[in-house]
Design brief:
Blueprint (H helix, E strand, L loop, with lengths): L1 H15 L54 E3 L6 H13 L6 E3 L2 H35 L21 H11 L18 H18 L3 H17 L7 H16 L6 H7 L6 H14 L9 H11 L4 H16 L8 H17 L6 H7 L3 H16 L8 H5 L26
Parallel strand pairs: 1-2
Helix pairs in contact: 5-7, 6-7, 7-9, 10-12, 10-13, 11-12, 11-14, 12-14
Protein backbone atom coordinates (compact mmCIF):
# COMPACT_ATOMS: atom_id res chain seq x y z
CA UNK A 1 0.00 0.00 0.00
CA UNK A 2 2.81 2.37 0.86
CA UNK A 3 4.54 1.61 -2.42
CA UNK A 4 1.45 2.32 -4.53
CA UNK A 5 0.99 5.62 -2.73
CA UNK A 6 4.60 6.56 -3.58
CA UNK A 7 4.02 5.73 -7.29
CA UNK A 8 0.87 7.87 -7.42
CA UNK A 9 2.69 10.77 -5.77
CA UNK A 10 5.55 10.39 -8.24
CA UNK A 11 3.20 10.49 -11.22
CA UNK A 12 1.43 13.57 -9.88
CA UNK A 13 4.79 15.32 -9.39
CA UNK A 14 5.80 14.56 -12.99
CA UNK A 15 2.52 15.93 -14.32
CA UNK A 16 2.92 19.10 -12.30
CA UNK A 17 6.55 19.66 -13.40
CA UNK A 18 6.80 22.57 -15.94
CA UNK A 19 8.26 22.07 -19.43
CA UNK A 20 11.80 23.33 -19.92
CA UNK A 21 12.16 26.54 -21.99
CA UNK A 22 8.42 27.15 -22.29
CA UNK A 23 5.97 28.51 -19.79
CA UNK A 24 2.48 27.15 -20.05
CA UNK A 25 -0.62 27.64 -17.97
CA UNK A 26 -1.69 25.41 -15.18
CA UNK A 27 -4.12 23.49 -17.42
CA UNK A 28 -3.01 20.01 -18.52
CA UNK A 29 -3.14 18.49 -21.97
CA UNK A 30 -5.79 16.08 -20.87
CA UNK A 31 -8.06 18.78 -19.52
CA UNK A 32 -11.18 18.84 -21.69
CA UNK A 33 -11.94 22.51 -21.14
CA UNK A 34 -8.49 23.71 -22.33
CA UNK A 35 -8.71 26.51 -24.96
CA UNK A 36 -7.77 25.71 -28.55
CA UNK A 37 -4.20 26.50 -29.52
CA UNK A 38 -5.36 28.90 -32.19
CA UNK A 39 -7.11 31.05 -29.59
CA UNK A 40 -4.42 31.66 -26.98
CA UNK A 41 -4.40 35.42 -27.34
CA UNK A 42 -1.18 35.69 -29.32
CA UNK A 43 -2.57 37.08 -32.58
CA UNK A 44 -1.22 40.39 -33.89
CA UNK A 45 -2.82 43.27 -32.08
CA UNK A 46 -4.17 41.10 -29.23
CA UNK A 47 -3.20 41.72 -25.60
CA UNK A 48 0.09 40.16 -24.60
CA UNK A 49 -0.40 36.62 -23.36
CA UNK A 50 1.83 35.36 -20.56
CA UNK A 51 2.05 31.99 -22.32
CA UNK A 52 3.48 33.46 -25.56
CA UNK A 53 7.14 32.99 -26.37
CA UNK A 54 9.12 36.20 -25.94
CA UNK A 55 12.59 36.98 -27.20
CA UNK A 56 15.27 37.35 -24.62
CA UNK A 57 15.97 40.88 -23.51
CA UNK A 58 12.59 42.23 -24.69
CA UNK A 59 10.83 43.76 -21.72
CA UNK A 60 8.62 46.76 -21.22
CA UNK A 61 11.22 48.31 -18.94
CA UNK A 62 14.41 47.77 -20.95
CA UNK A 63 13.32 47.71 -24.60
CA UNK A 64 13.58 50.98 -26.56
CA UNK A 65 10.97 52.26 -29.03
CA UNK A 66 13.18 51.40 -32.00
CA UNK A 67 13.72 47.80 -30.85
CA UNK A 68 10.22 46.94 -29.66
CA UNK A 69 8.77 44.32 -31.98
CA UNK A 70 5.68 42.18 -32.12
CA UNK A 71 5.51 38.40 -32.32
CA UNK A 72 2.91 37.21 -34.77
CA UNK A 73 1.78 33.71 -33.98
CA UNK A 74 -1.30 32.40 -35.72
CA UNK A 75 -2.76 29.00 -36.54
CA UNK A 76 0.43 27.13 -35.54
CA UNK A 77 0.78 25.33 -32.19
CA UNK A 78 3.79 26.23 -30.10
CA UNK A 79 5.72 23.03 -29.71
CA UNK A 80 8.86 22.58 -27.67
CA UNK A 81 11.05 22.41 -30.78
CA UNK A 82 9.46 25.54 -32.31
CA UNK A 83 9.89 27.49 -29.05
CA UNK A 84 13.54 26.47 -28.82
CA UNK A 85 14.16 27.53 -32.42
CA UNK A 86 12.72 30.99 -31.80
CA UNK A 87 14.81 31.34 -28.63
CA UNK A 88 18.04 30.41 -30.48
CA UNK A 89 17.31 32.90 -33.27
CA UNK A 90 16.75 35.73 -30.82
CA UNK A 91 20.23 35.14 -29.32
CA UNK A 92 22.10 35.43 -32.64
CA UNK A 93 20.28 38.46 -34.13
CA UNK A 94 21.84 41.90 -33.52
CA UNK A 95 18.46 43.56 -33.76
CA UNK A 96 15.03 42.34 -32.92
CA UNK A 97 13.07 41.17 -35.92
CA UNK A 98 9.52 40.22 -36.65
CA UNK A 99 8.82 36.50 -36.28
CA UNK A 100 5.72 35.73 -38.26
CA UNK A 101 4.29 32.27 -38.01
CA UNK A 102 1.11 32.08 -40.00
CA UNK A 103 -0.72 29.77 -42.28
CA UNK A 104 -0.67 30.34 -46.04
CA UNK A 105 -4.24 31.64 -46.08
CA UNK A 106 -3.57 34.21 -43.34
CA UNK A 107 -0.40 35.38 -45.11
CA UNK A 108 -2.22 35.76 -48.42
CA UNK A 109 -4.97 37.80 -46.79
CA UNK A 110 -2.36 40.05 -45.21
CA UNK A 111 -0.55 40.60 -48.54
CA UNK A 112 -3.80 41.25 -50.44
CA UNK A 113 -4.91 43.79 -47.87
CA UNK A 114 -1.55 45.53 -48.06
CA UNK A 115 -1.74 45.65 -51.90
CA UNK A 116 -5.25 47.05 -51.79
CA UNK A 117 -4.22 49.73 -49.30
CA UNK A 118 -1.21 50.63 -51.49
CA UNK A 119 -3.39 50.94 -54.59
CA UNK A 120 -5.86 53.05 -52.66
CA UNK A 121 -3.08 55.37 -51.52
CA UNK A 122 -1.76 55.68 -55.10
CA UNK A 123 -5.25 56.55 -56.40
CA UNK A 124 -5.67 59.17 -53.67
CA UNK A 125 -2.28 60.66 -54.53
CA UNK A 126 -3.21 60.84 -58.24
CA UNK A 127 -6.53 62.51 -57.42
CA UNK A 128 -4.77 65.05 -55.20
CA UNK A 129 -2.26 65.79 -57.98
CA UNK A 130 -5.06 66.32 -60.53
CA UNK A 131 -6.91 68.59 -58.12
CA UNK A 132 -3.74 70.59 -57.52
CA UNK A 133 -3.18 70.97 -61.27
CA UNK A 134 -6.77 72.17 -61.76
CA UNK A 135 -6.35 74.60 -58.88
CA UNK A 136 -3.13 75.94 -60.38
CA UNK A 137 -4.87 76.46 -63.73
CA UNK A 138 -7.73 78.28 -62.03
CA UNK A 139 -5.31 80.44 -60.06
CA UNK A 140 -3.29 81.27 -63.17
CA UNK A 141 -2.94 85.00 -63.19
CA UNK A 142 -4.21 86.98 -66.14
CA UNK A 143 -1.54 89.30 -67.57
CA UNK A 144 -1.73 92.87 -66.28
CA UNK A 145 -2.36 94.87 -69.47
CA UNK A 146 -1.91 98.33 -67.91
CA UNK A 147 1.47 97.83 -66.24
CA UNK A 148 3.33 99.05 -69.34
CA UNK A 149 1.51 102.42 -69.11
CA UNK A 150 2.11 103.03 -65.42
CA UNK A 151 4.36 106.01 -66.19
CA UNK A 152 2.03 107.49 -68.83
CA UNK A 153 -0.32 110.05 -67.23
CA UNK A 154 -2.59 110.01 -70.29
CA UNK A 155 -3.30 106.32 -69.77
CA UNK A 156 -4.86 107.03 -66.33
CA UNK A 157 -3.93 103.55 -65.15
CA UNK A 158 -5.27 104.17 -61.64
CA UNK A 159 -8.87 104.43 -62.78
CA UNK A 160 -8.96 103.19 -66.38
CA UNK A 161 -10.93 100.12 -65.31
CA UNK A 162 -13.51 102.37 -63.65
CA UNK A 163 -13.87 104.25 -66.93
CA UNK A 164 -14.62 101.10 -68.87
CA UNK A 165 -16.97 99.83 -66.20
CA UNK A 166 -18.88 103.08 -66.69
CA UNK A 167 -18.86 102.54 -70.46
CA UNK A 168 -20.34 99.08 -70.01
CA UNK A 169 -23.10 100.41 -67.78
CA UNK A 170 -24.03 103.26 -70.13
CA UNK A 171 -23.51 101.73 -73.59
CA UNK A 172 -27.18 100.85 -73.88
CA UNK A 173 -28.01 104.56 -73.77
CA UNK A 174 -26.23 104.98 -77.10
CA UNK A 175 -27.95 102.02 -78.74
CA UNK A 176 -31.06 102.26 -80.90
CA UNK A 177 -33.94 99.94 -81.60
CA UNK A 178 -32.73 97.43 -84.23
CA UNK A 179 -35.93 97.85 -86.27
CA UNK A 180 -36.35 101.61 -86.11
CA UNK A 181 -36.59 101.78 -89.91
CA UNK A 182 -40.16 100.55 -89.60
CA UNK A 183 -41.06 104.07 -88.42
CA UNK A 184 -39.55 105.69 -91.51
CA UNK A 185 -41.89 106.05 -94.51
CA UNK A 186 -39.48 107.34 -97.20
CA UNK A 187 -36.13 105.66 -96.43
CA UNK A 188 -35.06 102.07 -95.82
CA UNK A 189 -32.11 99.93 -94.74
CA UNK A 190 -30.53 99.95 -98.18
CA UNK A 191 -30.44 103.75 -98.29
CA UNK A 192 -28.82 103.82 -94.88
CA UNK A 193 -26.14 101.38 -96.08
CA UNK A 194 -25.42 103.55 -99.16
CA UNK A 195 -25.11 106.66 -96.98
CA UNK A 196 -22.68 105.11 -94.48
CA UNK A 197 -20.56 103.49 -97.19
CA UNK A 198 -20.23 106.93 -98.81
CA UNK A 199 -19.40 108.60 -95.48
CA UNK A 200 -16.58 106.10 -94.89
CA UNK A 201 -15.01 107.30 -98.14
CA UNK A 202 -15.51 110.96 -97.11
CA UNK A 203 -13.95 110.23 -93.73
CA UNK A 204 -10.96 108.64 -95.48
CA UNK A 205 -10.58 111.54 -97.90
CA UNK A 206 -10.65 114.16 -95.13
CA UNK A 207 -8.18 112.07 -93.08
CA UNK A 208 -10.28 112.32 -89.97
CA UNK A 209 -9.76 110.44 -86.71
CA UNK A 210 -11.19 106.96 -86.31
CA UNK A 211 -13.36 108.06 -83.39
CA UNK A 212 -15.12 110.51 -85.68
CA UNK A 213 -16.45 107.82 -88.02
CA UNK A 214 -17.99 105.72 -85.24
CA UNK A 215 -19.60 108.73 -83.59
CA UNK A 216 -20.96 109.89 -86.97
CA UNK A 217 -22.77 106.59 -87.53
CA UNK A 218 -24.09 106.61 -83.96
CA UNK A 219 -25.50 110.13 -84.33
CA UNK A 220 -27.20 109.18 -87.62
CA UNK A 221 -28.92 106.13 -86.15
CA UNK A 222 -30.03 107.87 -82.97
CA UNK A 223 -31.45 110.77 -84.96
CA UNK A 224 -33.28 108.58 -87.48
CA UNK A 225 -34.74 106.53 -84.62
CA UNK A 226 -36.38 109.71 -83.27
CA UNK A 227 -37.05 111.80 -86.37
CA UNK A 228 -38.62 110.88 -89.70
CA UNK A 229 -36.59 112.06 -92.70
CA UNK A 230 -37.44 112.28 -96.38
CA UNK A 231 -35.19 110.63 -98.91
CA UNK A 232 -33.72 113.78 -100.37
CA UNK A 233 -32.62 115.01 -96.91
CA UNK A 234 -30.85 111.80 -95.92
CA UNK A 235 -27.46 112.87 -97.30
CA UNK A 236 -27.82 116.18 -95.47
CA UNK A 237 -28.35 114.25 -92.23
CA UNK A 238 -25.16 112.29 -92.95
CA UNK A 239 -22.84 115.26 -93.56
CA UNK A 240 -24.31 117.16 -90.63
CA UNK A 241 -23.73 114.21 -88.34
CA UNK A 242 -20.12 114.16 -89.49
CA UNK A 243 -19.82 117.89 -88.77
CA UNK A 244 -21.08 117.33 -85.21
CA UNK A 245 -18.73 114.41 -84.69
CA UNK A 246 -15.79 116.47 -85.93
CA UNK A 247 -16.62 119.25 -83.49
CA UNK A 248 -16.66 116.70 -80.70
CA UNK A 249 -13.58 114.65 -81.64
CA UNK A 250 -11.31 116.58 -84.00
CA UNK A 251 -8.77 119.27 -83.32
CA UNK A 252 -9.12 120.77 -86.79
CA UNK A 253 -12.75 120.76 -87.91
CA UNK A 254 -13.69 120.85 -91.63
CA UNK A 255 -15.50 124.04 -92.60
CA UNK A 256 -19.13 123.91 -93.66
CA UNK A 257 -18.28 124.90 -97.21
CA UNK A 258 -16.12 121.82 -97.60
CA UNK A 259 -19.05 119.65 -96.62
CA UNK A 260 -21.33 121.49 -99.06
CA UNK A 261 -18.76 120.90 -101.78
CA UNK A 262 -18.43 117.21 -100.99
CA UNK A 263 -22.22 116.92 -101.45
CA UNK A 264 -21.84 118.41 -104.95
CA UNK A 265 -23.65 121.53 -103.71
CA UNK A 266 -26.88 119.67 -103.25
CA UNK A 267 -27.44 121.68 -100.07
CA UNK A 268 -26.66 125.19 -98.98
CA UNK A 269 -24.70 126.37 -95.98
CA UNK A 270 -27.92 127.54 -94.29
CA UNK A 271 -29.50 124.09 -94.71
CA UNK A 272 -26.51 122.45 -93.06
CA UNK A 273 -26.66 124.79 -90.07
CA UNK A 274 -30.43 124.39 -89.78
CA UNK A 275 -30.10 120.60 -89.78
CA UNK A 276 -27.34 120.91 -87.15
CA UNK A 277 -29.71 122.75 -84.80
CA UNK A 278 -32.45 120.19 -85.36
CA UNK A 279 -30.17 117.24 -84.68
CA UNK A 280 -28.57 118.51 -81.47
CA UNK A 281 -31.97 119.44 -80.08
CA UNK A 282 -33.42 116.06 -81.00
CA UNK A 283 -30.50 114.32 -79.32
CA UNK A 284 -30.64 116.78 -76.41
CA UNK A 285 -26.98 117.65 -77.01
CA UNK A 286 -25.95 114.21 -75.83
CA UNK A 287 -22.81 113.39 -77.79
CA UNK A 288 -20.96 111.51 -75.07
CA UNK A 289 -21.87 107.91 -75.80
CA UNK A 290 -19.57 104.86 -75.84
CA UNK A 291 -19.12 103.72 -79.43
CA UNK A 292 -17.49 100.48 -80.61
CA UNK A 293 -14.24 102.40 -81.03
CA UNK A 294 -13.62 102.93 -77.30
CA UNK A 295 -14.09 99.23 -76.67
CA UNK A 296 -11.91 98.31 -79.64
CA UNK A 297 -8.93 100.08 -78.13
CA UNK A 298 -9.30 98.41 -74.77
CA UNK A 299 -9.95 94.94 -76.15
CA UNK A 300 -7.06 95.12 -78.61
CA UNK A 301 -4.81 95.91 -75.69
CA UNK A 302 -6.16 92.95 -73.75
CA UNK A 303 -5.55 90.69 -76.77
CA UNK A 304 -1.94 91.94 -77.01
CA UNK A 305 -2.58 92.33 -80.73
CA UNK A 306 -0.14 93.36 -83.39
CA UNK A 307 -0.79 95.74 -86.29
CA UNK A 308 -2.22 93.02 -88.53
CA UNK A 309 -4.87 92.04 -86.01
CA UNK A 310 -5.70 95.69 -85.37
CA UNK A 311 -6.20 96.59 -89.02
CA UNK A 312 -8.20 93.48 -89.80
CA UNK A 313 -10.39 94.09 -86.74
CA UNK A 314 -11.19 97.62 -87.87
CA UNK A 315 -11.89 96.37 -91.38
CA UNK A 316 -14.43 93.89 -90.05
CA UNK A 317 -16.13 96.32 -87.72
CA UNK A 318 -16.42 99.01 -90.41
CA UNK A 319 -18.07 96.44 -92.63
CA UNK A 320 -20.51 95.93 -89.77
CA UNK A 321 -21.24 99.67 -89.53
CA UNK A 322 -22.72 99.54 -93.01
CA UNK A 323 -25.07 96.67 -92.19
CA UNK A 324 -28.38 97.58 -90.58
CA UNK A 325 -28.80 94.08 -89.11
CA UNK A 326 -25.78 94.58 -86.85
CA UNK A 327 -27.63 97.18 -84.77
CA UNK A 328 -28.92 94.35 -82.60
CA UNK A 329 -25.46 93.95 -81.08
CA UNK A 330 -24.12 96.25 -78.40
CA UNK A 331 -20.96 98.28 -79.18
CA UNK A 332 -18.82 96.17 -76.84
CA UNK A 333 -20.15 93.00 -78.44
CA UNK A 334 -19.25 94.23 -81.93
CA UNK A 335 -15.74 95.17 -80.83
CA UNK A 336 -15.08 91.83 -79.15
CA UNK A 337 -16.47 89.85 -82.09
CA UNK A 338 -14.34 91.82 -84.58
CA UNK A 339 -11.16 91.05 -82.65
CA UNK A 340 -12.10 87.40 -82.19
CA UNK A 341 -12.83 87.05 -85.92
CA UNK A 342 -9.59 88.80 -86.87
CA UNK A 343 -7.51 86.58 -84.60
CA UNK A 344 -9.19 83.46 -85.96
CA UNK A 345 -8.72 84.64 -89.54
CA UNK A 346 -4.99 85.22 -89.14
CA UNK A 347 -4.26 82.11 -87.07
CA UNK A 348 -6.48 79.73 -89.01
CA UNK A 349 -8.23 78.42 -85.90
CA UNK A 350 -10.48 79.71 -83.13
CA UNK A 351 -8.52 81.86 -80.76
CA UNK A 352 -9.81 83.63 -77.64
CA UNK A 353 -7.49 83.96 -74.66
CA UNK A 354 -8.38 84.07 -70.98
CA UNK A 355 -7.33 87.75 -70.82
CA UNK A 356 -9.68 88.59 -73.71
CA UNK A 357 -12.54 86.80 -72.04
CA UNK A 358 -11.93 88.57 -68.73
CA UNK A 359 -11.61 92.10 -70.13
CA UNK A 360 -14.36 91.85 -72.76
CA UNK A 361 -16.70 89.86 -70.48
CA UNK A 362 -17.73 87.79 -73.52
CA UNK A 363 -17.06 84.10 -73.94
CA UNK A 364 -16.24 82.53 -77.27
CA UNK A 365 -19.73 81.03 -77.50
CA UNK A 366 -21.35 84.44 -77.04
CA UNK A 367 -19.38 85.89 -79.95
CA UNK A 368 -20.05 83.17 -82.51
CA UNK A 369 -23.24 84.58 -84.01
CA UNK A 370 -21.79 88.06 -84.53
CA UNK A 371 -18.49 86.62 -85.75
CA UNK A 372 -20.25 84.44 -88.31
CA UNK A 373 -22.00 87.50 -89.74
CA UNK A 374 -18.67 89.34 -90.01
CA UNK A 375 -17.14 86.44 -91.91
CA UNK A 376 -20.01 86.64 -94.41
CA UNK A 377 -19.46 90.40 -94.82
CA UNK A 378 -15.77 89.77 -95.37
CA UNK A 379 -16.53 87.12 -97.97
CA UNK A 380 -18.59 89.48 -100.14
CA UNK A 381 -16.84 92.76 -99.29
CA UNK A 382 -15.44 93.33 -102.79
CA UNK A 383 -18.69 92.47 -104.55
CA UNK A 384 -21.73 94.57 -105.33
CA UNK A 385 -21.98 98.36 -105.29
CA UNK A 386 -21.05 99.03 -101.65
CA UNK A 387 -17.28 98.55 -101.77
CA UNK A 388 -16.07 101.66 -99.98
CA UNK A 389 -14.70 99.77 -96.96
CA UNK A 390 -13.07 97.13 -99.15
CA UNK A 391 -11.30 99.73 -101.29
CA UNK A 392 -10.10 101.57 -98.20
CA UNK A 393 -8.55 98.46 -96.64
CA UNK A 394 -6.93 97.21 -99.81
CA UNK A 395 -4.61 100.24 -99.65
CA UNK A 396 -1.06 99.75 -98.41
CA UNK A 397 -1.71 102.35 -95.69
CA UNK A 398 -4.13 99.89 -94.05
CA UNK A 399 -1.93 96.86 -94.54
CA UNK A 400 -4.06 95.41 -97.36
CA UNK A 401 -6.22 93.91 -94.60
CA UNK A 402 -9.12 93.29 -96.98
CA UNK A 403 -7.02 90.82 -98.98
CA UNK A 404 -6.87 88.26 -96.18
CA UNK A 405 -8.87 85.11 -96.78
CA UNK A 406 -12.03 85.09 -94.66
CA UNK A 407 -12.30 82.56 -91.83
CA UNK A 408 -14.84 80.33 -93.57
CA UNK A 409 -14.35 77.58 -90.98
CA UNK A 410 -16.29 79.74 -88.52
CA UNK A 411 -19.40 79.52 -90.70
CA UNK A 412 -19.88 75.87 -89.70
CA UNK A 413 -20.30 76.84 -86.06
CA UNK A 414 -23.87 77.27 -84.92
CA UNK A 415 -24.69 80.40 -82.92
CA UNK A 416 -24.88 79.92 -79.17
CA UNK A 417 -28.58 80.91 -78.97
CA UNK A 418 -29.74 78.33 -81.52
Amino acid sequence: MDRSRENIASLRAQEAAPMEGVRFGARTANNSDRRALRDIGNLAGAPQNPNAVRKRGLSDENATDDKKQCVFLADRPITRRFAATLANQSRTDDHLQFSIATSSSTYQNFILRDVEETKEEEVNIEIEEIEMEDLEEEEEEVPEIDSCDSSNPLAVVDYVQDIYNFYRRTEDLGCVCPNYMSNQFDINEKMRAILIDWLIEVHYKFELMEETLFLTVNVIDRFLALQTVVRKKLQLVGVTAMLLACKYEEVSVPVVDDLVLICDRAYTRGEVLEMERLMVNTLQFNMSVPTPYVFMRRFLKAAQSDKKVELLSFFLIELSLVEYQMLKFRPSHLAAAAIYTAQSTLSGFKHWSKACKMHTMYSEEQLLECSKAMVEFHQRAGQGSLTGVHRKYTAFKYGCAAKHEPALFLLDIRPANC
